[in-house]
User: What shape does this take?
Amino acid sequence: MMSMILRRLAISLVILLVVSMLVFVATLLLPGDPAQAILGQQATPERLAALREQMDLNDPVWQRYLTWLGGLFVGDFGVSAASGGSVGELLGERIAASLVLMGAAALISVPAGVVVGTYSAIRRGKAGDHAATGISLVLAALPEFVIGIALVTVFSTTVFSILPSVTMAPPGENVWDYPAQLILPVLTLVLVVMPYIIRMMRATMIEVLDSGHVEMARLKGVPERQVILRHALPHAVAPVAQVVAIQLAWLAGGIVVVEFLFRYPGVGQALVDAVTNRDVQVVQALSMLIAVLYIVVNLLADVVGILTNPKLRTEGAR
Amino acid sequence: MSTETAETTTTAPTAVLRADGLKVATTGGKEILHGVSFALTPGKIMALVGESGSGKTTAGLACLGHFRTGLQHTGGSILLSDSTDLLELSDAGRRALRGGSVSYVPQDPALSLNPAMRIGEQILEVLRVHGYGSTEAERRERLAGVLTDVGLPADADYQRRWPHQLSGGQQQRVGIAMAFACRPEVMVLDEPTTGLDVTTQALVLQTIHQLAAKHDVAGLYITHDLAVVAEVASDVAVMLEGDVVEAGSVKEVLYSPQHRYTRKLLNSVPDLAGRRRIGDVSAITGEHTVVDPDAGTQAASEPSTGTQPTGRRAAVSDRAPEPAAATQPATNDDGALLSVSDLRLAYGDNQVLDGIDLALAEGESMMLLGESGSGKTTLARCIAGLNDAYQGSVALSGNTLERGTRQRSADERHRIQYVFQSPFSSLNPRRTIAESVEVPLQMSGKLNAKQRRAKVQEALDQVRLGATYLDRRPGQLSGGERQRAAIARALVNAPSVLVCDEVTSALDVSVQASIIDLLRTLQVDTGMAMLFVTHNIALARHISQRLAVLQKGRIVDLGPTGDVLENPQHSYTRELLTNVPSL
Assistant: This one.
């Protein structure tokens, strides 16, 4: 089993390397000159040349790539063109803020999705199932900003004015010091992610409940609760883990819109700002970050799949 | 419905479980069981026999108070020895009985064991649920005991195995151990040996028989295999479309059947000796040899009987006086239509085929016999070019063929046709029968649409499917009809060699009989050669002139069918022969 996971890990590293090349090449292709972007239209040719020299822009492309890649390994993401400060410092706080948002959304939506999906599968064809599938279909069809705006309308305007609609943490303080401000952004993300988990859970659970070994467990006289928990659930988890991984990875990108909507100081805002300011270094760092996140959650999903399947587990050991 | 004998057993005070006028219908209102009655007595096994769709599994599951999704109980009762009605009990009451005093052994152990639980744990679970013994140590002792009872190792290592680490036979014995763990009064066994090889089947049957006799368990053995019934059961009830049409002791029912359907079933059972005919074509006994390709036209449609040689039989035995023609082509490639030499195939360390030499003469039918994992299907697929990873050569009429179908010429592909095991998955469900059968003709591209249609009709006629089947889809056909359509698709280009891969193993015995009958008739009519791949040795005399026995990728026995069956050279063949259940 270990060798299998190590193999996946090795493949992940190769993928990351390829992504880093793509990101680097893509930013090279962006129109405009970083030195020009920093110094503005009025810069003299001498100053431009000096800055280019300072930013190593005159080196061959492969050398710049290697320098950048080497920096990534030691946590040096370069210097922000817009602010002149270190990218790492600029993003550190925002990454933490975004991770809090995503983590909270994942911690709520995954268990809730699994429970609702399982409930739906068990009560197949009954009123509870129809309600759950109906609502999840509607939510799945709505874009995240519509859900966000609807929540804002309901909870922070005239209907119930109980929750803040924007995040306003004083500088120097952390966003999670104000939990009330987190509720609406987290809820929006939960409502966006959960429908897919519910639908996938319901579909796999129905399949598992119809399988021979579940029928056999019932014919053994095993109580229904134990049938679901021990005989059905473990087999439904692996396919659902893949969907959860895709959803979490989506969160990394989807968070941009939600953060913008709630003026949440996370990576999404940073990315929007960086693109507007042609801040190439920040765009590169964030792209790499999102790629790492994709790969990590997918790797985790694979590990869950291996752990819940004894056949895969024992084959690796042989 | 129930005959005199059934009545007497139902009124006998010893019955531990009695089904009385059991009625089950779909939720849509269609009745599946129309009042089934039977009684089970301790220490005896009653067989419930019938075709797929006759409702035998439904009746068996009703004994545990279980109805599959879409079915509901509409009448009648299942009475236990203390005359409580199992179907009247609450859910909790039924659960207490299930796996405890009434237990179930499923048809397919590979699907019915939880793949994510160790086998020891699965058996312990049933002991725990039913509160067997007062301590965990006591339950562990029972676990070891019951594993020994079914002939499996009982050590801790074995108990910690996963289901996928066991063979099919071992899995089934774990299933039986699980059913037997709580010392039930009644065991319902749903075709427990259907997926197993004869040798394993013999072992499992022996285990069941011993357990029932030794511990006074009443057994309900659901099966479609009458030969197994004769082996294991003392009473038998025959089911037809939701009714028990005949019931009584095995002796009465199997040796002097009263009902027309029972007789038909009995006539369908292939036997090793070839004494009986299955279907209309008589079995091949010693004096029959190769089909004469030229005699095809002579084959009359009149049914032949087992004893007097009529038109078809005469055609079959035309060349009987020249035994050389029948037996020699095997060793001599020159005259062979299809010859395989030194064919090898390995997946990693696993040598699937290990130097196969085989030759098939024109108009000859050869049975390729082997258990699961022997490489028989792989060999068939290599011959047809569906598997191109082999070494060695396959030659047709002396020309060595390319390995894969894509490299072979259209003509070469036409000449070797393949019929797959499962007619349920080998026909495209979205195409009509005519469209499916037409595909090989389209590929050859020689005929126009009208001519193709005529050819298709001709092929369907050959397999006894009329013009009404042309525009139906596979979903509207029974298993046997689908297999006929699949055969028609193989025949449409008039192949020289027909490879039949386990074509009857997914079908009921009576349907199997008609397919075997059809294949033999077609072979006589068209003079094609046939390679019949199967695990069922009992079919040997009914289908083939020569018999090749495959074990672990090697041919261990090869010769005229009669010779191999009467005078097997290899110990493996002898073992197979002793394990074949017979009536």
